[in-house]
Amino acid sequence: MCLAIPARVVEISNEGKAKADFGGIYREIDISLVDAKVGDYVMVHAGFAIEIMDEHEAKETLALWKEMLEKCFQR
């Protein structure tokens, strides 16, 4: 099973890497597979941006992730 999570690109370096915001957690990702720009939302799998997303779609997906995680940890 593959799992990709939306993130927002906040900074791009010269070597095909970017700093991405995963809802307040920042990680370096590889953007060499997409033509991402600062402010774009991307789907990230295994550290690689694999698709540029529409902002509305990304925010909807993030809201669903938040809802699922809240339900998982309500025990």
Explain this structure:
The protein has a single domain, classed as SH3 type barrels (Roll). The protein has one helix and five strands; from the N terminus they run E-E-E-E-E-H. The chain has one helix at residues 55-72, and strands at 5-12, 17-21, 26-30, 41-45, 48-53. The protein has a five-stranded antiparallel beta sheet with strand order 3-2-1-4-5, with helices on one face. It is elongated.
Number of helices: 1
Order of helices and strands: EEEEEH
Number of domains: 1
- CATH fold naming: SH3 type barrels
Structural class: alpha+beta
Largest sheet properties: 5 strands, antiparallel
Name of the CATH architecture: Roll
CATH first level: which class? Mainly Beta
The order of strands across the largest sheet is 3-2-1-4-5
State the separation between the terminal residues, measured CA to CA: 26 Å
Strand fraction band?
35-45%
Radius of gyration: 13 Å
How many beta-strand runs?
Answer: 5
* Overall pLDDT: 93
Regarding quaternary structure, what we see is single chain
Summarize the structure.
Helices cover 24% and strands 39% of the residues. The chain is elongated, with a radius of gyration of 13 Å.
Topology:
Layout: E1 5-12, E2 17-21, E3 26-30, E4 41-45, E5 48-53, H1 55-72
Antiparallel strand pairs: 1-2, 1-4, 2-3, 4-5
